[in-house]
Structures are given as C-alpha cells and as structure tokens.
Amino acid sequence: MTKGILDVIGNNPDKSRKLLQRDNNERLTAKIVDSQFNCIFSDHGRNKRANEEAIAFNFSHYLEGVEQGLVTSNVLDPDTEEIHTSKVNLAHVLQFVTGCDAIPATGFDTSSTIMFDHNEPHRKLTANTCSCTLTFQFVICSPIMSHLRVTSQNACSAHLGLVKCKLCWAVNT
Prior knowledge:
two-stranded antiparallel sheet, 7 helices
C-alpha cells in the first residue's frame, strides 16, 4: 500500500513537497513561537506559581523583543577570539529549544514545554531538544523587580529566570 504513495510522491515531487513541507515564506512571529509552548506551573495558590507566571509572561515579551530585532547576543569567534554582537531571531530561539529552526509542516510530535526548576538556582537556562523542553531556573528577585516588563536590549535575564541581576543583588543585600 505504501508503494503507491511513494510512486505518487516520486512522480510529483513539487506538488508533494507543498503537502509535506512547511512554506518557507511563512514568517515566524512571536505569537507563533509562543503558541508552541505549554507551561508546567506549580499548583494554584502556591507562592511559586505567581513567580512562574511572571517568568512565562516575561518570556512572551522577550519573544516580542526578538521579533522586533531588539535582542542581541555577544558571540565569541573561536578562531580570532573576537567578540561579535549578533541579533537574535525567532529561528534561533526555536532551534535552541527544539533543534529545528522552523516549525515542521506537520508540527512537532509533542508541544514544547516550559518547566521551572526551583532546586538549582545557580544554573543557567537549559533546553532539551529531544523532549522540546525549556527549563528556567527559578531565581528569587525583589517584589519590585518581578513586576517589571522585559523590554528591548535592556531586558534583565534574571526576569526570564536566567541569572540574578545587579539591581536584584543590590535590593536583596
């Protein structure tokens, strides 16, 4: 039975490609990338839950900043040992979490998951491309900072759950 399908695909590769491959002209947007994620929050009513929701909210704003071209990263060239500034794009974010720089035509086998690790606060953001899981390390920040929105290049990575920022160190010490 599959032989017939393979013959049709082999005889009509261009038409088959449209059915089996996502349109490369379809532009990734923050909304599309954000919709790929399912957050695993702590139970309602727990203090952890509010902080996790703030991190998820800020991650959505981070994606919007990436879409607008406002987020940059320093990249070390191993050959010259020079540091170059590079704009982060949504394909980079998607590739970090899933291993793919675009959404497959049939979608991912499972939805990408955002989890929160409250046990290792000094570790950095991690991703598992096999399970499409993004894990934010929980960082305790001041109540003042937890209400700030992540915006443009001055976005504090602490409020995405990555590291504790200098202002948070100053407020909490």
